[in-house]
Amino acid sequence: MSCLICAGHAEAIDCPAGWEGRRCLKCGCYHMSQKLILTMMDEGQIFDACKMRQWLDMRRGVMPIPTIDVHEAILVV
Ligand SMILES: [Zn+2]
After folding, report:
1. Which domain holds residue 60?
2. Does any domain span residue 42?
3. How far is the CA of 1 from the centre of ligand 1 (A)?
């Protein structure tokens, strides 16, 4: 299983239907919407892993496992 943000080694974690959950050594735990994953693949986009990790760290103050949907994705431009 690979991380959806940095493509490093990650474990799948439980998540609601329509979401993918990962625990990555570098990015930590997160849930990502399948819609976002499909959009990323369709458009050939990749995440800015560094900025996504900063965002995830910030979100963990509010929720233990942050959810990443289309509006939260920080992409390499
Ligand atoms: Zn990662």
Report:
1. 10-72
2. yes
3. 11
Say how many Å lie between the CA of residue 6 and the centre of ligand 1. Answer: 4
| Ligand 1 centroid, distance to 20 Cα (angstroms) | 13
Considering its fold, how many domains does the chain have in total?
1
- Of all helices (H) and strands (E), which one includes residue 63? none
pLDDT > 90? residue 24? yes
Is position 2 within any domain?
Answer: no
- Does residue 1 belong to any structural domain of this protein? no
Name the burial class of residue 65, with classes exposed (0-12), middle (13-18) and buried (19+) by CB atoms within 10 angstroms of its CB.
middle
pTM here? 0.93
Distance 11 CA to ligand 1 centre (A): 10
